[in-house]
Amino acid sequence: MGSYRMSILKGAISINAANLAAETGQEGFDVFNPSTHSLMVMRGLDEESHIKLSDSTEIQSLATLAPKFGRIWSGTPDNPPDRSFEFVKELYHGVLERPLSVLRIPPQWTSQIESCASNSNSTVIIGPPGSGKSTFATQLVNRTLTGFGKKEPPKSHVYFLDLDQLNPKYSAQGLVSLLKLSVPTLGPTFTHPVTVPGSGRTTIKAHAVPVNHTFFSQEYFLACVEDLCQSFRYRNATDPAPLVVDIAGSLFLEHRSLLVRLLGSIKPERVLCLYPYAAPSHGDPFDGELFQAASDNHSLYSELFFSFPTRDLPQKQGDLREMSAVSHFHLAPSSDSSHLSWENQTLEQKSPWQFCYEKTVIRKQCFIGFLLLGEWISPSVVGQLLNVSVVHIARTCDPDVQSKFETLPRTEDKMRLPYFPPNSSNYGEPLDPRTSHIVCTALVRGFHLKKKFVELLIPPSLEDVIKTLKPEETVIVAGCNENPGWAYMESTYAALNEAAKNGVKLEDAVREMELDPHVMSREDYERLGHLVTMRRMRFA
Question: What parts of the sequence cross the membrane (predicted)?
């Protein structure tokens, strides 16, 4: 349990369905095995296998900014203080004060993974939330990339179509994307929150989609998927590789007609439907609809039933998404692109990019305008909505959109922000997926009214792509992500952590420090009493 760099010196091992041998594993793999998830197990595949584990503490340092990264890696008193992992001997951890769980894969999963990795060029994985789709998809990719000895040679890469904008695996929230994966995945999403050049994971194309299903447009989502499928076919014609598709569980529950249409767009060889319970005596009528849709597209349809044991994990899905966001914005530049690293500087300590939103005497306008997806709001509050929000930077080659450069309406306040007006349905009109794509994700740190620029925080490892942007091709897209409440608390947590190092009690530190405007101690909050108004508070 923990985080470490693993090198295979002799023999071969299996971990998370990836078969790694000494011939290919001596350069090392980054493994992240926190107690937020069921622990991956290493198994030797030869009579004798030798591995070397090296400490890797970078991601653990984020606990000084976000406490959710603490008490999830290791904590045995016998461990050296700088040791980033420990050998788990029992499933109740006395120091962490909670039971641990081990990732146990049902035999029917193993047989399907072997079959798909050997015989399928395209596999779609569907099912309700909690069915294990994400785990299955990861293990299928890992097995395909690493093979199975002489029985099944490894593939050089796999295409991965991620259609879960709420919980994406390799990108920021609010995106559906097509990726090229060349290395196995040995950790949860917050340990690989974005694709970095040279890391063995590449984003081919991505589109922004709101995570709030109240504002979900089925036609726009389908257009995004069709464009990503077209990108896959174009790539696959010259650089063939298997395709694995992971579809959000929410579509299975809330948008079943769209799910059927998606199968028609993707046209996979196999459709696997996973259920988080034992096979029912009476089938779901929707199963017949899915089977018919698969048959119409000449796809092999299979159902897998498995009831996972219930367990109380220290973090819920919302916590894990927050951890992914923190990890994304604290990625550090690294000389070794195959090894991700993090820095525990607060957002206030980072140098932002300045995007000029209105031409001045010394600056040119840097982008077309702000596009707010979802239900339209009054232009007078656009600035408030954007401030300290997560946005996506898009590039478009649509002449109609480019013609709006320096001609969009502006908010009628001191900020004068350029914005795309709503459509006839009073919603933000998204960009055409065929002529646009997302370049990267950023955090709005603030606005400079006099100099007319917005400050954007972008991970250093992604900054090279920013230098290639042209103002008349660039749009800043908002309204696709959850509110980054964690961003308000970083400086406070960092100060409290520093005080704790100096032996100051938590209560005394909070009482003496000057809190940020959006942060209040619980003691002060309780003094407010009951106001005749609704207040939204986030307790940390």
Answer: none
Shared domain check, 77 and 157: no
Q: Residue 68: how many CB atoms within 10 A of its CB?
A: 20
* Count of all residues that appear for the chain in the document: 540
Paired sense of beta strands 390-396 and 436-448, if any: antiparallel
Q: Which residue has the tokens 């994990």?
A: 313
C-alpha 260 chain-centroid distance: 25
Does 111 lie in the same domain as 235?
Answer: yes
Domain that holds residue 48: 2-103
CA pair distance 161, 231, nearest whole angstrom: 11
Dump pLDDT digits (tens) for 365-381. 999 999 999 888 899 99
Beta-carbon neighbour count of residue 165 at 10 Å?
A: 27
pLDDT tens column, 416-425: 999 999 998 8
CB of 506 closer than 8 Å to CB of 496: yes
Is 90 a domain residue? yes
CB 415 within 8 A of CB 380: no
Task: Find out whether 306 and 106 touch, Cβ atoms under 8 Å.
Answer: yes
Q: Give yes or no: residues 95 and 114 share one domain.
A: no
- Kindly state whether residue 509 falls inside one of the protein's structural domains: no
What tokens were used for 516?
């940020």
Residues 6+ apart with CB under 8 A from 349: none
Closest CA to 376 of 428, 411, 416: 428
Domain tally, the chain: 3
What is the tens place of the pLDDT at every residue in 99-141?
Answer: 888 888 888 899 999 999 988 899 999 999 888 899 999 999 9
**Considering the entire predicted model, what is its pTM?**
0.93
In terms of domains, do 161 and 44 share one? no
Distance between CA atoms of residues 372 and 386, nearest Å: 9
In the chain, the percentage of residues whose pLDDT exceeds 70 is 89
> What three-state secondary structure class fits 4?
strand
